[in-house]
């Protein structure tokens, strides 16, 4: 197997800002672990961006009715990377309108890669990415200290669920 890819999932203002409805109270604690991992791995940074209203299907319509604050264009500053890790995306970002970033990542990594996952939110975009990538044949390591959940409890629950998927997913 080739060198693993570090995937830093959605380190954006919308998930980091304390005043954001989606801000993780754990976000500040993952910046240094993410930077340490990036120093040792080739790195991909992802962003979640909303689909345009006329491109939304099914449950996404109800989702934006529940969360109207996030119904903005993808270029809105709310979806910018946080300054603390923006330099990790010097080559650009992999953007997706879905929680899970697989298969958008596959176009960069190729099929069945080894992925090291970090980012936010453990209980949403990280778990959605991990499960889909593992199902497609990727080998996944989720770095618990480099992930931030919506709450400490939800972070722990998501890690517990992903640990059930061994050996395809390993929580480290």
Automatic annotation (TrEMBL):
Residues 5-166 form the Isochorismatase-like domain. Keywords: Hydrolase. The keyword Hydrolase applies. GO terms for molecular function: hydrolase activity. It comes from the Bacteria. The keyword Hydrolase applies. This is Nicotinamidase-related amidase. It comes from Aeromicrobium choanae.
């Amino acid at each position: 197997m080739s060198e693993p890819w570090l995937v830093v999932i959605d380190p954006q203002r919308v998930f980091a800002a304390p005043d954001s409805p989606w801000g993780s109270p754990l976000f500040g604690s993952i910046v240094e672990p993410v930077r340490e991992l990036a120093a040792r791995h080739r790195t991909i940074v992802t962003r979640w961006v909303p689909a345009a209203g006329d491109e939304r299907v099914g449950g996404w319509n109800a989702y934006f009715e529940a969360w109207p604050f996030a119904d903005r264009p993808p270029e809105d500053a709310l979806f910018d990377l946080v300054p603390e890790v923006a330099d990790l995306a010097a080559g650009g970002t992999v953007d997706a309108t879905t929680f899970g970033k697989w298969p958008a990542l596959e176009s960069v990594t190729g099929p069945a890669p080894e992925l090291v996952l970090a980012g936010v939110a453990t209980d949403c975009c990280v778990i959605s990415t991990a499960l889909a990538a593992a199902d497609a044949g990727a080998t996944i390591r989720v770095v618990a200290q480099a992930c931030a959940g919506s709450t400490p409890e939800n972070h722990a629950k998501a890690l517990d669920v992903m640990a059930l998927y061994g050996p395809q997913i390993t929580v480290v």
